[in-house]
Amino acid sequence: MRTTLIAATVLVFGLFVSSAAARYHRPAHHPSTDPVALALTLGERYWHASPCNGSVRVVSSTEFPTEVTGAAVNSKIQAGAAVLLAWTSFETPDGPNEIKDKPAQYTDCQIALNGNLWRTWWIDDGEFHWLCDLMTHELGHLFGYPDEGQTDPRSVTYPVLEPESPNFNSVPQCRHVTLWYGNRRLVG
Asked: Which terminal Cβ of the chain has fewer Cβ within 10 Å, N or C?
């Protein structure tokens, strides 16, 4: 009788514990967020497509190539009158960065982030919304949108993109993003 009572108590206790455990849900583990990859994905979502047949490299660089920025922009950068946040480069049948060619012909597509500004993932995280808007702007070049000739300063395709610009916060996909790092969460 005593053995039956102990077995019944263990069984009831076991059901109680398993029932309590079923009601308590531990938060699911979220893989770490790569802010640059996420910004690229959200930018592609904004444009509803992936340029360059889905083959876009994102790199960090502190050297500003003349063929990308042009001599006039480089002189402004050297004089401290402008800051180049990022730039896009690609190959076309007519040569490098010929934006007049059809975007379907672009190959060897690359977005370079200014390594002097985007030095660490902490900065990428802390300024994620800015990074995401910037990535979306640069992707626009790979869809054939040049900086020149843009007249609406609120448009993401307008050349100046920084937190003080009218076009900052113009990409809805970049708003209210949650970045995950293990059990820590950063909301941008």
From this structure: N
